[in-house]
Amino acid sequence: MLNNLCLMYGLSEFWHERFHVYLVVSILQGFMFYAGCITAVIAVVYAQIFKRKPRPIIIRAFAVVVYISIVSLAVFNAYSPVVHRLTVTTDKVLDKPMEIALVSDTHLGRWFGNRQIDKMVKLIDAQRPDVVVIAGDVMNDSTDAYEKTNMHEHLSKLRAPLGVYATLGNHDYSGNEVAIAKAIECAGIQVIDNKSVWLDDSVLLVGRSDVTDPVRPAAADLLTKVESKKPVIFLEHSPDALEEIQGLPVDLHLSGHTHGGQIFPLTLLLKWFTPLVYGYEQTNDTQFLVTSGYGIGAVPFRLGTRSEIWMITLQSAP
Q: 74: which residues sit within 8 A by CB, 6+ positions away?
């Protein structure tokens, strides 16, 4: 009855704050199902091996322990980010390696706020990147929680010698994209939707708006004046345009959006619908990296994925 009441409450405001309650309760029910399956399998194996009658009280207690463990792991993965490293080599001339910090899908909002921003800034500062790029979904649909809890003071501490740049994602293009872009810019982060900027006059960083932007240009239109002798990094929220990018003079494509599936079994199912759900891949002369993201979106759980930051070393071939 309690679960059903929570579900009905969540559905009373579809796709807004109350709907998040529906999602959380649904996922917790899914974790109950996982705990039940795990317990049933172990109980059957135990009974077959030791030839003993099942003890319902012990089985139920074990199921509760398994359930609590699954939920704890999912929360831990969501709020305990890790730093991954990747070295990308290009045949183009680069006087010295460039250290790039990639963050995506922070989804700043009710579930993810100042404490997580401070942790992100600390982790990135420890890596000493030359530049920081954010691949969309900076906020979770609006600036309400951002303004209410003064996240500006914390986000504005994110700095790098060559600057901090961001593109907007589908949750930023939720009808509040102007307010979100303004808040990001006020924090010292340059929004480069459909713009390009030179990093130390040696690497061209090109940004593109999300696919939900009705006036989003083709990638080729943003690369008409590219100097082919210098590396090009293309930053956007979604990895859906991999085929479009492959034939263009792009050395490194960075994106997020998928959350890596975020919660099992989506971690597996998404591979059927997305060209690259997570990780690194090279096609022709372009290298692609899709991050599972730093934030969590609508629900404070990750099962099968973990919050992350990528540190990318871009360097010329020997």
A: 31, 263, 301, 302, 303
Q: DSSP letter for 108, please.
A: B
Is the confidence at residue 15, as pLDDT, over 70? Answer: no
Higher pLDDT, 203 or 22: 203
Report strand pairing: 286-290 vs 190-191.
unpaired
Task: Note whether 13 and 19 are within 8 A (CB).
Answer: yes
Residues 164 and 188: their CA atoms lie apart, in Å, by: 7
| Tokens read off for 192 | 């480069």
The vertex-139 CA angle with 135 and 141, nearest 5°, equals 120
> Over 13-32, what HEC string results?
CCCCHHHHHHHHHHHHHHHH
Q: Where are the alpha helices (DSSP H) in the chain?
A: 2-11, 17-50, 56-79, 114-127, 144-148, 152-155, 177-186, 242-246, 266-269
pTM reported for the whole predicted model: 0.92
Rounded distance between C-alpha atoms, residue 142 and residue 145, angstroms = 8
* pLDDT for residue 14: 61
30 has a pLDDT exceeding 70: yes
Distance CA 274, CA 256 (A): 12
Whole-Å CA distances, 301 to 17, 294, 310: 16, 12, 20
- Confidence tier at 154 by pLDDT (50, 70, 90): very high
- How crowded is residue 148: how many other Cβ atoms within 10 Å of its Cβ? 10
Q: What share of the chain is helix, strand, coil (3-state, %, to 5)?
A: 40, 20, 40
**Residue among 231, 261, 235, 269 nearest 249 (CA):** 231
Q: Which residue has the tokens 């989804």?
A: 107
| Separation CA 306–CA 105 (nearest Å) | 12
Contact 146, 116 (CB under 8 A): no
